[in-house]
Amino acid sequence: MKVISRKIELDWQKQITKFETLSRQKANQIAELKEELRAIPPSVRAGFYTEEFAKEEAERINAEIAVLGAEQDDLVISKYDSERVVIFFEVFLENFDYVWKKMDLTKRQTLLSLILPYGIEHDGKSFQTVTFSPLFKQISTFSEENVHKVT
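Predicted structure:
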């Protein structure tokens, strides 16, 4: 379980890092647009922009800033959600034996149905899952040959 827990944690940490990077990129784009916005009044005073063009340009830039701000907020929320998943796996999988013992039968059956949705089968020599578990499909380094058989 510790190997699975660590792999899941590493995969999610990559996701968190990706969200942080994208969020910083959005923040940089917003900062650049705000600089463009601040440059509009001096351009009008210098006669480079007409009042009408300056107004349209400011509206366009403000709209872009609003969209980028919403996208950045979504990335921050996704990052926090991912961090919560990591914390869950750290606590849940690290203490799986304890959690399993504390679960009642219904909770155990629910958990098993999520991990082994179609059950397991026996071919006379070994047990194997009927289909590949969705849980393990999320772990990119596990191949079906490595995890499929449970002996």
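Summary: The two ends are 16 Å apart (CA to CA).
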